[in-house]
């Protein structure tokens, strides 16, 4: 029996932080043996906001190396770079032409990011979710494991599928509707400076996030300075205490302990003691990933061979879907 398929990706913009790890990559690793997985580094998405050409390639390789360092296993998973498979851009164009404009102007992430860009906002930023839909649909993914912030993009993808199949499928499901896979715990890791704001690569304050590659000194400093509150005792699920909820969740996920266990262990702790515990747990959880990452980055040819092989495997699947879509749209295919 063939396994259901997963596709997901991360943008090579800035450092990956605990939100990316706990909301996405860690879940990919845990589930990978049950699925046929495609994980891409979405470098076409990375230029939807101003970017630096001098670091794009290096950042792309760094994300692929982090996938491996976090535990993505090539026995179950294919790792590739989005821009190496030209079908992504081509399908995005075809889907653009059947996607109503107002579906895109309604996207929360577009509105938020566009606000930050001011007058310089590019068409690519508006079109970002259509490219994301193309990423997913090319591989006929059954499930897409992501953090909470991507939920609306997944809904749009499903709407595009319905519209395409309805208009051009002649009763057949040419495109497959994917299910989002959003875990309850870790789906929305919050900023260290404000427990009501998402931890984000684009927050100007480094203090707001812990990066996967942060040194033990930086992690110690960031946790020491992170926002807390003055209520005695530490508890989950108090809406008045977003920072407490977030930091306990980080501890729970990074220690691998159950929620009840963490609740009992931390109920009477003071912030100072808890912060020491969280610091130690975070450093211990990230250390093996960092060691493996540096090992992989030191062997450029190994990483390149993985990406070359990944591209070949991805290309085979992607080209077939693209062909099906073009045929449905009435194109004459090259002989
Ligand atoms: P990106 O690069 O912003 O984020 C990568 C993954 O990390 C998750 N994430 C978080 N999870 C929990 N808490 C947070 N604070 C947090 N911040 C980020 C994101 O939900 C995501 O799963 N559009 C995508 C990239 C993409 C993609 C795709 C994903 C492009 N094509 C196809 C899945 C399938 C994005 O911006 O990810």
Quick structural summary:
54% of the residues lie in helices and 7% in strands. It contains 12 helices and 5 strands.
Question: How would you sum up the global shape?
Answer: globular
What is the helix tally?
12
What profile does the largest beta sheet have?
3 strands, parallel
Our measurement of the CA-to-CA distance between the termini, rounded to an integer number of angstroms, reads 34 Å
Proportion of residues in β-strands: 5-15%
Rg of Cα set = 21 Å
| Biggest sheet: strand arrangement | 1-2-3
How many DSSP-defined strands? 5
Key traits:
5 strands; 7% strand; 335 residues; mainly alpha
Describe this structure in words.
It contains twelve helices and five strands. It has 335 residues and is mainly alpha-helical. The strands form two sheets. The chain has a three-stranded parallel beta sheet with strand order 1-2-3. A two-stranded parallel ribbon has the order 4-5. Helix 2 (53-70) packs across helix 11 (271-297). Bound molecules: tryptophanyl-5'AMP.
């Amino acid at each position: 029996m063939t396994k259901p398929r997963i596709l997901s990706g991360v943008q090579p913009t800035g450092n990956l932080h605990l939100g990316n790890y706990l909301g996405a990559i860690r879940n990919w690793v845990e589930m990978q043996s049950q699925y046929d997985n495609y994980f891409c580094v979405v470098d076409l998405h990375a230029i939807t906001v101003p970017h630096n050409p001098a670091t794009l390639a290096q950042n792309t390789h760094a994300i692929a190396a982090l996938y491996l360092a976090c535990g993505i296993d090539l026995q179950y998973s294919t790792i590739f770079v989005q821009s190496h498979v030209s079908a992504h851009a081509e399908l995005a164009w075809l889907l653009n032409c059947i996607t109503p404009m107002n579906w895109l102007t309604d996207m929360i992430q577009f509105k938020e990011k566009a606000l930050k860009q001011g007058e310089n906002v590019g068409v690519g930023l508006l079109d970002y979710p259509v490219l994301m839909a193309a990423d997913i649909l090319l591989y006929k993914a059954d499930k897409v494991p992501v953090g909470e912030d991507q939920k609306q993009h997944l809904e749009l993808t499903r709407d595009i599928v319905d519209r395409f199949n309805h208009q051009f499928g002649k009763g057949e499901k040419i495109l497959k509707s994917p299910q989002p896979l959003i875990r309850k715990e870790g789906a929305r890791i919050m900023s260290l400076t404000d427990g009501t704001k998402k931890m984000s690569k684009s927050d100007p304050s480094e203090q707001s996030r812990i990066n996967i590659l942060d040194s033990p000194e930086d992690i110690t400093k960031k946790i020491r300075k992170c926002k807390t509150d003055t209520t005695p005792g530490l508890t989950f699920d108090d809406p008045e205490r977003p920072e407490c909820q977030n930091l306990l969740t980080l501890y729970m996920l990074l220690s691998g302990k159950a929620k009840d266990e963490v609740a009992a262990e931390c109920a009477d702790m003071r912030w100072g003691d808890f912060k020491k515990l969280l610091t130690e747990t975070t450093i211990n959880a990230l250390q093996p990933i960092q060691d493996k990452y540096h090992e992989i980055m030191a062997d450029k040819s190994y990483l390149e061979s993985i990406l070359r092989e990944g591209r070949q495997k991805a290309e085979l699947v992607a080209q077939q879907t693209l062909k099906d879509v073009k045929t449905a749209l009435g194109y004459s295919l090259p002989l």
